[in-house]
Amino acid sequence: MAKQNKLEVHAIRPGIAPRSRAPKSPTQLDRVIHEPVRLGIVSALAVNESMSFNELKDLLKTTDGNLSVHARKLEESEYVLCEKQFEGRVPKTTYSLTTQGKRALENYLTHMEGLIRTARDG
Amino acid sequence: MSRPRILSINDHASENLRYIRETMERAGSFTAVPGWGGVFMGGTALAASIVAARVPTREAWFAVWMGEAILAFAIGCWALIRKAKTARVFLKGPGRIFALSLLPAMFAAVVLTIVLYRYGIYALLPGLWLMLYGVAVVAGGTYSVRLVPLMGICFMVLGVIALALGGEWANFSMGMGFGVLHIVFGAVIARRYGG
Q: How far is A86 from chain B (nearest CA, A)?
């Protein structure tokens, strides 16, 4: 098995201040994950302990650039944790969901269910 | 230019929930196929092909491969459950979908094996096993990483070759298929997709 050299683990990239667009109250819509690719990343990571960049790219059928932009936004909001390693000489980036990210997905699900309930009852 | 689709808030919320559910299902099945399990299955199949080449009778040859089939089935189940637990996706989820997709072709293989055994037509068995196993893997791997259906196609091609070559090459084609193909694809899946 290839030797893994851990490079760095970070939720926020050094030098980049968090620009959180997370909702201030639970009733507010979370703009960070209210976007298909970001919602896809968070949903996929909710059922896997971690997934590599390539796995997420294949799963969400998106491009390198698009995935990296959206993953960065999730990192900045501290919803996902990014881990960079080397497998032998090949760099490997893996992502996992933080507790904050899990909570955000739960809130988002509650919010969507609430919208459906309100529309049905009203 | 196409007009943007107008959705009510209710429809939009339902669509978002459906998207989350489908992504979770695909993400789970994406990594549900056990790579190391495939490598172990390949190892036992290679050993079985060496043993089967040395037994004196056709009945003993058949018994060796039946024993290997039971052992491989047990290894496959163990590996599937183990990987599902590792990924916190138990068998009620995508792992179960993968396993159930294998069943129709496996059932056909069992029935045809019984029929051919009763008529003593052993020469067709390796090609039949390889081809139907390939069909099962292609079906099971529909929602998995591309490597899984590709492995199934390789098994099907090898099955056709085994049928063309006939009984004399039985152990070679079985060793190449259930042994080498399992080991190669299993190792790549394990390395790329975590176990």
A: 13
Beta bridge partners of A80: A97
- Which pLDDT value is given to residue A20? 52
Task: With beta carbons under 8 A apart, name residues in chain B contacting A47.
Answer: 24, 27-28, 87-89, 93
Are A79 and A98 in contact by the 8 Å Cβ rule? The answer is yes
Read off the amino acid at residue A86. F
**B-contacting residues of A 59-88, CB under 8 Å?**
59-60, 87
Could you tell me whether strands A4-10 and A90-97 are parallel, antiparallel, or unpaired per DSSP bridges?
A: unpaired
For A39-95, the pLDDT digits (tens) are 999 999 988 778 889 889 988 989 999 999 999 999 999 999 999 988 777 788 999
Are B179 and B46 in contact by the 8 Å Cβ rule? The answer is yes
CB contact under 8 A, B17 and A109: yes
How far, in Å, CA of B60 to CA of A39, rounded? Answer: 56
